[in-house]
Structures are given as C-alpha cells and as structure tokens.
Design a protein that fits this description.
about 475 residues; mainly beta; Methylamine Dehydrogenase, Chain H; Immunoglobulin-like; four-stranded antiparallel sheet; 1 helix; about 35% strand
Length: about 475
Amino acid sequence: MPRLYWRQVAVLLGVFALVPIRGSAQSGVSFSTLVDFDSTNGANPEAALIQAIDGSLYGTTSEGGSYGYGTIFKITPGGTLTTIYSFCALANCTDGSVPESVLVQGVDGNFYGTTNQGGKYSQGTVFEITPEGELTTLYSFNDCSVSGCLGGYHPSGGLVQATDGNFYGTTLNGGEYGDGIFFKVTPAGTVTPIANLTDGAYTVAALIQGSDGNFYGTTIRGGNCCGTVFEITPAGVETTLHTFCLLENCSDGSYPVGGLLQASDGNFYGTTGGYGFISYGIIYRLSPTGVFTVMYHFHSTDGEIPLAALIQATDGNLYGTTSEGGANGLGTVFRFTLTGTLSTLHSFSSNDGGTSYASLVQDTNGSFYGTTLEQGPNEVGTLFELGDGLGPFVETRPTSGTVGSTVGILGTDLTGATSVTFNGTAATFKVLSSSLISATVPAGATTGPVQVTKPHGTVTSNVNFQVLP
C-alpha cells in the first residue's frame, strides 16, 4: 500500500538548509469538518472527491464499510453522507477490494474506477457503478484470456476519460518489465492492454491528458533512482521527460507521488514527497518541451511530504495539501501562486483530520473539498470543506465539442437561468436540474468562456470551452 511505503520513506529523508519564500496564513479562510469517518461508513480515504452532475460529491475509502475493504460514497451539498457500495460483498472479493483511486463520471452518468486488490485473480479490477449503487466488474487484472494480455496488476492511479470517450490507466506492477502496463477501457467495458511501461516504476497517480492529446504521468521509482515524469501517446509510445534526483543533494526532488496538473499557462505542475534542499518536498514546473524548474521547497512549518496532485482554482492559483508538517505536524492545505509564493490556509489538528493523500476539488459553489487519511475523532479520516473567498462558477462537460453538439453545464443554483452563451454567442439550452443545464454549441461560436445568466447574476466557466472544427 502506498501509505505504508511512505511511512518508510519518511524515515530516510535527509535534512539540508534553505530559507523558503513563505506567505502567512490568510484571513477570511473558513474551514469545517463535514464527515468524521467511523469505519462503518468507510475509513482511510486516499483519493480525491469528484463533483457529479447531480451536484453531490462522490468518493472512495480504501478501508471500512460493511466488509472492511472499502466503500464508494456520496455526500450531498447539505452534508449528508450515504454509502452506495461496500466492497468485498461477493465471495472471495471478486467484486474487488481496496479502492485507492478517484472515480470518473462517464458521459453515460455512471462512475468508473479501479480497485487495487480483489477481483477474480485477487490483483485488482476495473468497475462501473451507477449513482444508485449497482456495481459491474468490467475486468479483473491478470486475466490472460484477454487478447494481448500483458500481465499488469494492482492498478493504483485510477482512470482518466480521454477526448475519444475511452478510459485510460496504468497498473502499479506487472508487464514484461515488472513496471506496470498502460491500458484502455471502452465505455462498453472492453479492456485493451496497450503497452508495457519501460522507464520508471510504480505509477501511483492517475494520468492526465494534455492539450496535445497525449497522456502524462509520474513514477515514484526508476530513472536515476527516485522517479520520473513521462509522456505516453494513446498508441503507447512512452517518453521520459524528467528523471528526479539528478541535481546535487536531490534538490530537484524525489518520489513524485502526486501526479501532474497542466495549468492555464500550458506548463505542467507537480510535487515531490521527498528531498529538495531540506528533504520535505518541492513544487516543480515542467514545460511541454521538458524544461524543469523547482518552484518551491517546503519547510516543516508550512508542510512536509506533499503526496497529492495540485489543482488550479478559478483565481488562477494552485491549491494542494501536505501529508505532514504545519503547525501541528499533521499536514496543511496551501495556496501557491504561479510566481512562487506559498500561503498556508489551514494546519490540520488531530480533531479535524490529518495526513491528507488526496487532491482537493473545487466545487462549483467556489469552495474546496477534500479528505484526510487519518486522525479525526475516530482516527480513520475526515471529509472537510475549505473556503477561500472564491465565488461560484460553471463547468462544461466535456470541455470541447463541435458546433451542434450537446454539452452539459454543471453548476450550483442553476434553476431560473435565462441565458447561456459560448464566448458571447447565445445558445439554446434546457435547465435539467438545479445543478445541470443541457446546451447546444451554437453556430458561430468560438473558443472561449461559457457564461450562464441566473436571476442573481452571471457565472462563468472555470476553463474556456474549445470549439472543435
């Protein structure tokens, strides 16, 4: 399990000197714990939450539930948590166990994900689950009755739905070189192994699809010793973009557990859990051409060992968590500007949680939501909300499409909307619920923001909608 590995790694980290650039904790930040996990409703959440088209947040816990092997849950905007599935409900856990990764909501409204263990061969699964909790196991890893089997097993990073409508992912182990495989899952559930991973090992974070259509990810082993950033095409051609621990004293960082974000400036941003000058981890930037820059070295007072991917919020800043450090030694939530200034927004305490492994998600109401792996009253994790003064927005699903295509617009309090525009061009639309609008990309639309006019103001999409030829 990744968390056990990181407890071992933390013991090995050395100490070097650096004076970091730090901002102070910000006034106006609000924090509240919404759920104290208690094992019966799940325990030890490792993955980020997602906001679904019904307006609720959905997530997984890696342990707990009715059988002790993890859950899928939803939490409503009002704060009510419902367990919709407990894993290992079937004999020998053929439905999977230990879901460590984030869910993805497909265009069909169902959720897709992976389990690290369980399944027919006890080496993990790919599954589909309806919002009502009906689960279908699409694939059990190491099933070599599948054509082209490469022998991958133990998926950890989860899936990403690409612009072609298919899901793509990696496994932690297996394949010809033992470093895992790259695979595709169609919406119909057909799994196709694509390639062995060849340079670097242990892809514990989900891939992202870049603006060029290729996939980008990280490994926490391999390369020089301590992980890589790689690019892989949909056909499976892999290129290493950066190998960590190349610089003196590993000042470029090591063990990039958290995966990548491609920000609005086109660059990739990520974190490493180890080293940097003072061994507490770094924030780095990587250009599409492979230029690597260390942006920030963590100090114990502003956090240690960031293990989650960063996100970019509607204010253009990056937000993330650390698993340790901060005022109470249990981790932090932070804001980071693209010019290199970090501000600690919250230091976890034993009562409100600690040791966050999961990325934050910004809800369309403007607030951030996340989980902690441990601590809280029951010592098995919490779910929290943090506000940083950001207002509501809308999110298009998908973020690109041709003229005449139908697009979902996710938001908050959309009832009564009077207009929808694509970069200023009016569109026909229908309000399906308070959280969802269906709109048609209008003739004459160009790439740019989508805006929805509501009775109490206008809200804008968090990213530009790309009009395809």
